[in-house]
Amino acid sequence: MTATGGPKPKAVQVADALREDIKRMKPGDKLPSQRELIDRFGFASQTIQNGLAALRAEGLIVSAGNLGNFVSDGASPSSDVRDDIKEIRSQIQALTERVAALEERSAPGGA
To answer: Which of 47, 49, 56, 53 is nearest to 33 (CA)?
Structure first.
């Protein structure tokens, strides 16, 4: 099966937009809070978290817990089982959103 250029999953949209923001930021700069990102994108908090998880997995940002997310200095991300689990959950959520969109389009009367 190949992609048909349909709409990107919401978490991917968040990650893509934040990647562009990060290009204009310096290492150590703080990203907007999760609440600010929810307001900006209009997506659920889990979707925002999934977008951020993708950026963490790419090593573009680091999480400082309750302090927020910061632009990485480019050092390789530390491997932690909890981070791996979060990334897997993020990928599952993105796939779930894609399947739901495909099912909606293929349903009788769907656009």
So the answer is: 49
Domains of the chain: 10-106 (1.10.10.10)
Q: Identify the three-state secondary structure at position 66.
A: helix
Residue ranges of alpha helices (H) inside the chain are 10-23, 34-41, 45-57, 81-106
List, as one string, the DSSP characters of 8-38.
Answer: PPHHHHHHHHHHHHHHTS-TTPBPPPHHHHH
Closest alpha carbon to 14 in 40, 77, 64, 87: 40
What pLDDT is attached to residue 1?
A: 43
What the block records as the tokens of 88 is 């897997």
Answer whether 0.70 is exceeded by the pTM: no
DSSP 89: H
Q: Write the CB contacts of 13 (distance below 8 Å, at least 6 apart in sequence).
A: 41, 51
